[in-house]
Amino acid sequence: MNVFRLTGDLSHLVAIILLLLKIWKTRSCAGISGKSQVMFALVFTTRYLDLFTNFISPYNSVMKVIYLGCSYATVYMIYMKFKASYDGNHDTFRAEFLIIPVGGLAFLVNHEFTPLEILWTFSIYLESVAILPQLFMITKTGEAETITTHYLFALGLYRALYLINWIWRYYFEGFFDLIAIVAGCVQTILYCDFFYLYITKVLHGKKLSLPA
Amino acid sequence: SEQNTKKDEL
User: Fold this and answer.
1) Which ipTM did the prediction report?
2) With DSSP H G I counted as helix, E B as strand and the rest as coil, what are the percentages for chain B, rounded to 5?
3) I want to staple A161 with a disulfide (CB 3.0 to 4.6 A). Which of A8, A40, A41, A98 is the partner?
4) Which residues of B fall within a CB distance of 8 Å from A52?
């Protein structure tokens, strides 16, 4: 494991825990897209089915369990515990417009036509676009709480660090996975506009708000 | 193999 992969994983972990803590501490999930969070739970569920079939390392298993647990806890907080604060009126992105095409693509373009491999591919494709309802929600309301922008930055940074990890692995291990790389590029590109706003506004102490 | 290497990522 190289340093980019490790910091990528840690950045992902920070993002997930930051969101969970924010909701827990404020007792509110206002401004958070439940649809994005349900899709992330679906991403982890379909990707980590190999927890039961393929042991890699204690690190690998522990991280998978943490990601899964936090992801389900987040969905539980949004749709059950703090349901009253959920901003459903602004969370209007049609999730089926992502899930159905992504499912079709996973059937057509995969490494191996087996159930586990198709589900893994589905999770990679879905992850690349799962943030869209959240970004759409911010565009719609025109603003985001600063802590939410820190969450988004850490989440976007994770895949960007994975991209560097894949370049590293290609040079030093001769390893590459085209499905993960293409989806990872798409995923990172979706955050570019947000990264720009984060760096020019949030890091200068301003709240992220979009012009009306 | 490629499959095994791939699955070590999260």
Assistant:
1) 0.83
2) 50, 0, 50
3) A8
4) none
